[in-house]
Amino acid sequence: MAKKDVFFQKMDELGLALTYADVRLRTNYSEKMPDDVLLSTLFSRRVPLKVPLVSAAMDTVTTASLAIEMASMGGLGIIHRNFSPKEQASHVATVKFHLNGVVDKPICVRDTDTIESILRRREEKGYTFHSFPVIDEAGKLVGIITKNDFEFCDDIKKTARDVMASNLLLATSRIGIDIAYGIMKKNKKKVLPVINSKGELDGMYTFKDLKRVSSPGMEQYNVDERNQLRVGAAIGVGNDALERASLLVEKRVDVLVIDTAHGDSRGVIETVKQLKGIYGDRVDVVAGNVSEAGSAERLIVAGADGIKVGQGPGSICTTRIIAGIGAPQVTAVYNCARVGMMHSVPVCADGGIQYSGDLPIAIAAGASSVMLGSMLAGTEEAPGDVVFFEGRQWKQYRGMGSVGAMEASKSSRERYGQGDVAKKSDLVPEGVEGLVPYKGSVRNVLVQYIGGLRRGMGYTGATTIEELQERTDFIRLSPAGHAESHPHDVKITKESPNYNV
Ligand code: XMP
After folding, report:
1. CB within 6 Å of ligand 1 — which residues?
2. Domains of the chain: residue spans and CATH
3. In 10 A of CB 42, how many CB atoms?
4. Which of 291, 337, 459, 485 could form a disulfide with 311 if both were Cys (CB 3.0 to 4.6 A apart)?
């Protein structure tokens, strides 16, 4: 039996369940420096992460802009579901199109379209690009119009055929990003259309995207097989969830997250089965939230590709206080991850993270990834404005079960099983609304969290996430040990980027 199993078994015999501040990890011999440890892991069976960090599906945390930063740093963002299905799908599309290896279905114009009509359509549809392939009546590619053609066009009544370039550099198959980038650089072309044997357009490389995809640091990006950033999206249960899921899958979402306060329920289990029946291995389905081994087992048997653990640990959660349920997070993660490991289904530890030192603890308890809410709500990329209060900058952060979030969206009410409650005074909130300190960019925050995790791995001698999960041993802290762990007998005069009281 592994040392940590003995530890948790003893705690169980005492009837004790523990959370982050109750434990630390034992240090161990190490041969690698923190910067050399490997952080790659899984969010779900088929959705990898380069760092084990995922942003919470909350309306004050994850929209497209934060999800783009998360995936650019190697993690993953889960777009919240207080959006309408269409809005949520468009946020997924924004993330997917942020980096484009190859544009799969380029927006084309007809050779007979006037410049005036193309510009009007561009504005109406909100397209941010200026390069359009031009096709004829038979669907054959006959030219390209680019930004210069629009700018130098002196008469907007002219047609696309009048102004387009027709001496095209073409690729006759998907030749891969590196080759396409090389050809475009050599020929100083900003677009490289791909045509099939019938002369029809079958994709397009654009220089701007390839330059970004090929830039240094790109190897850290969490991208799919098309080199597009990965993104997840939250859904609920039942028919509404299936409809929402179909819009999200159409936009190529990487993982659907059934996001409820009580994952061990018939609605969630049925929805997992239905989604797996429809999408099979094409899209992963993560289900939650749960905090007991039996609950994780039932979701896995139903077909879940990942389990989200956490009932009440979150900074804005009042579920444990209002409903009197929920296991402290480290024990909950350990118990669910033990079941997950038997089935090779990854577990995500959701909620309750206060310090970077909590990350190695969550992973050592068995989590493959960790979900962050409050730690990201104060960033530039999270929704909402910065407010000034008591001499410093803050951002708003609220529970999805808070009165504000439940009033704002039926999805929030459904998350807490109150979808049909019409009157505000009849809502039973399970979360609060508040402010968190403004922290600058997601990048700044993640650098600290990733750095703390690396250091934790260095101290424990773990060189990979798997080693941290399998080999690490726990120590139970006494109140004196806890007090000793924090700064003491000193008045802190300068705020640290990774520590505040
Ligand atoms: P942190 O601690 O990172 O937690 O802020 C984020 C997680 O908390 C969950 N969540 C809630 N739980 N009432 C709850 O009991 C709520 O109103 C609420 N809103 C969010 C959620 O799992 C999130 O990822």
Report:
1. 56, 58, 289, 310, 312, 314-317, 319, 350-353, 371-375, 399-402, 430-431
2. 3-98+221-383+440-485 (3.20.20.70), 109-209 (3.10.580.10)
3. 21
4. 291
Distances (CA, A) of 204 to 88, 177, 191, 192, 375: 26, 11, 7, 6, 39
Q: State the burial class of residue 178 (Cβ atoms within 10 Å of its Cβ: 0-12, 13-18, 19+).
A: exposed
Pairing type for strands 53-55 and 392-398 reads: unpaired
Question: Which entry of 244, 398, 415, 454 is annotated as an active-site residue?
Answer: 415
Q: Three-state SS across 11-45?
A: HHHCCCCCCHHHEEECCCCCCCCHHHCCCCEEEEC
The residues, any chain, with a CB within 8 Å of residue 360's CB and separated by 6 or more, are 25, 452, 453, 456, 457, 460, 468, 472
Ligand 1 centroid distance, CA of 192 (Å): 46
Q: Is 317 a catalytic residue?
A: yes
Spell out a b/e string for 362-398, using b for 16 or more CB atoms within 10 Å of the CB, else e.
bbbbbbbbbbbbbbbbbbbbbbeeeeeeeeeebbbbb
Between CA 108 and CA 121 the distance in angstroms is 11
Taking the chain (501 residues) in runs of 10, the rounded mean pLDDT of each run is: 94 97 96 92 98 98 97 97 95 88 86 95 83 92 92 93 92 86 92 90 89 82 92 97 97 97 97 97 97 98 98 96 96 98 98 97 98 97 93 94 91 88 88 95 96 97 96 95 92 88 73
CA of 241 to the centre of ligand 1 (A): 20
Quick one: which atom of ligand 1 is closest to the CA of 376?
Answer: 3
CA distances from 330 to 3, 12, 76, 204 (A): 16, 12, 22, 48
What's the confidence (pLDDT) of residue 211?
87
Give pairs for 369-372: CB < 8 Å, separation 24+. Answer: 369/41, 369/42, 369/43, 369/49, 369/52, 369/53, 369/54, 369/76, 370/52, 370/53, 370/54, 371/54, 371/55, 371/56, 371/78, 371/308, 371/310, 372/53, 372/54, 372/55, 372/56, 372/449
| Per-residue tokens: 496 | 């640290």
Neighbouring residues of 415: CB distance < 8 A, sequence distance ≥ 6: 236, 259, 260, 261, 400, 401
Measure the CA–CA gap between 430 and 316, rounded to whole angstroms: 9
Say which of 244, 298, 317, 348 is annotated catalytic: 317
